[in-house]
Amino acid sequence: MTTVKCVVWDLDDTVWDGVLLEDGDVKLRPGVLDVLRTLDERGILHSIASRNDPAAALAKLTELGIADYFLHPQIHWGSKSDSVRAVAEAFNIGIDTLAFVDDQPFERDEVRFAHPAVLCVDALDVERIPGMPEMRPRFVTADSKERRHLYRADIRRKEAQDVHHGTDEEFLASLSMRFTIGPAAERDLQRAEELTVRTNQLNATGYTYSYEELDAFRRSPGHDLLVAGLEDRYGTYGKIGLALVERGEDAWTVKLLLMSCRVMSRGVGSVLLGHLIRAAHAAGVKLRAEFVPTDRNRTMFVTYKFAGFTQVAADGEVSVLEHDGKHLPGIPPYMDVTVED
Amino acid sequence: MSIDTTAAAQTDTRARIAEYLSRFFPVHDLKDDENIFELGFVSSMFAMQLVSFTEHEFGITVENEDLELEHFQSISALDAFVTRKLLAAAPR
């Protein structure tokens, strides 16, 4: 079962009673506000797929005091399946992590037909939504409670990027990014587990570890469990990266290297990997990394290869890559990197 | 294909690669043999963009075993790699 990351709502007769363009005085349906708030606190996002007049609908959402809950609303006369797909793309999350709520059986069927992995819910069942097993993330961390605001900051960054003239690197420089790398503390473990479960695209091995296993690695003298955080002038991105390194006598092995897909375009995977390369070099050991290819994590393979790794062994689906010990990466000029002990 | 058009196609590949890379190094007059990985930090995003560009622009598939720095490190290296892949894919 996939945990839902975002609920996409219809408006007329779903979020509010009635049809806005026929009755300008529509009222919130009972229970909707509680559901919005409850899921938001669990870190589940909300969006909209409504056939409506965008200006009128957004004005009504503001008047009802719930506009802030919804990100990337799709309000137009196109099909709901297109809107649902647009929401997944805008958040850069898998379409199988969406739920869709609508009162019309036709709309639910249309979405279900185009996207069988989307969980479709009848608006009559809205009060049952928080109790559904798909709506219960394993952990609710500080980052998950803040998730809506993290994405809202991402939208502001994106707007700034859209009006930016110049190279991507100049835009990145304008963000004043600060990247921190440090050993995982106990308070980071839930978020660390959440990252292993949530991250697909920028995950080199796809291994998932439980809270208890991660805690054991954190205490183990033979392992380093590192957590990376990022912030910039628009605010924090939260804890967005994780690395697990097994420290052998003459070689260290990266068992896990992952980055939240929200920071994909910031190139931070290379920054965390660069830190490991320099640390291994300073310790006089080889740096190896395990890699398990999936249909979605090619970016991580390219990251390793372009950082100077070559494949030295393969065991079933697990490849072992080794750094050449020569290409020592620098730190990107557009970012401050702090390593905490 | 005559020798003339082959030469033209090669020049074209090189020019398209040079044009693409110049977007990332706007203030730098990139030489054909210059190692782009020594010019600055190579982010995972740039690496992936370069691989995607190579695949889409020239209609080739970059296999995992093709993902070697030496194929992507300069305009002429990437030109040689693309030309070789296109030849291997061309019907005889």
Key attributes of the depicted protein:
heterodimer, A: 341 residues, alpha/beta, Rossmann fold, Aminopeptidase, 5-stranded parallel sheet, 11 helices, B: 92 residues, mainly alpha, HAD-like_sf (chain A), HAD_sf (chain A), HAD-IIIC family phosphatase (chain A), FkbH_domain (chain A)
Word description of this protein:
The complex is a heterodimer of chains A (341) and B (92). Chain A is α/β, with parallel strands linked by helices and 341 residues long. Chain A folds into 2 domains: 6-135, HAD superfamily/HAD-like (Rossmann fold, 3-Layer(aba) Sandwich); 166-339, Aminopeptidase, CATH 3.40.630. Helix content of chain A is 33%, strand content 26%. In chain A, the strands form 3 sheets. In chain A, strands 13-14-12-11-10-9-8-15 form an 8-stranded mixed beta sheet, sandwiched between helices. Chain A has a 5-stranded parallel beta sheet with strand order 5-4-1-6-7, sandwiched between helices. In chain A, strand 9 and strand 10 form a beta hairpin. The N and C termini of chain B lie close together (11 Å). The radius of gyration of chain B is 13 Å and the shape is globular. Chain B has a single domain (3-89), classed as ACP-like (Non-ribosomal Peptide Synthetase Peptidyl Carrier Protein, Chain A). Helices cover 59% and strands 0% of the residues of chain B. The chains are: A alpha/beta (341), B mainly alpha (92). Chain A binds chain B through residues 167-169, 264-271, 273, 293, 298-303, 305-308, 310, 327, 329-333, and chain B through 23-24, 26, 37, 40-48, 51, 64, 67-69, 72.
